[in-house]
Known about the structure:
mainly alpha
Amino acid sequence: MANREDQIEKLTGSENFHTWQFAMKNVLELSGWENCILPVTDENYEKDTTKLKKSKAKLVLCIDSSVYVHILDSGLVRKIGLLRKLTSTKLEDCDSMMSYVSQIIDTANKLNGIGFTVSEEWLGVILLTGLTDNFEPMIMGLENCGLAITGDTIKTKLLDTIGHKSNDGSAFFGLVKIK
């Protein structure tokens, strides 16, 4: 019995891309790997690296070798997209602090998963970078307290602010304003 992908015309270029794309989407769905292909939301993107590798291999085997030159560096496109998302995520664009922190950490984990290392220090700095101006006092306090800036430390500090905001939206609760 022939494999499903043996029955699919290989991708040769733009002339058969749409029919190939439709067929491959269905092959991956039959294999249970539909969350390995884009577009999917961050919430349901496949995290199992074995499934991701197998789905990529299945796609590549269904591409004519003459097209390989155009896809060999596609990992760079993924890295750039994830880096853009990582550096452009802002608290003001998210529904909550939890959503903000989750988006940044998930994106950093995806970058780490494809071999682009986001260090703990960089993760902490990126978490601080996307905050609103109301968090400047907290950032200055962190800078002066000698605490190591790591993703885990900053994540904990930010999640501790949930429910502890004053009426003006600042990151501190219970501070008395002196006139």
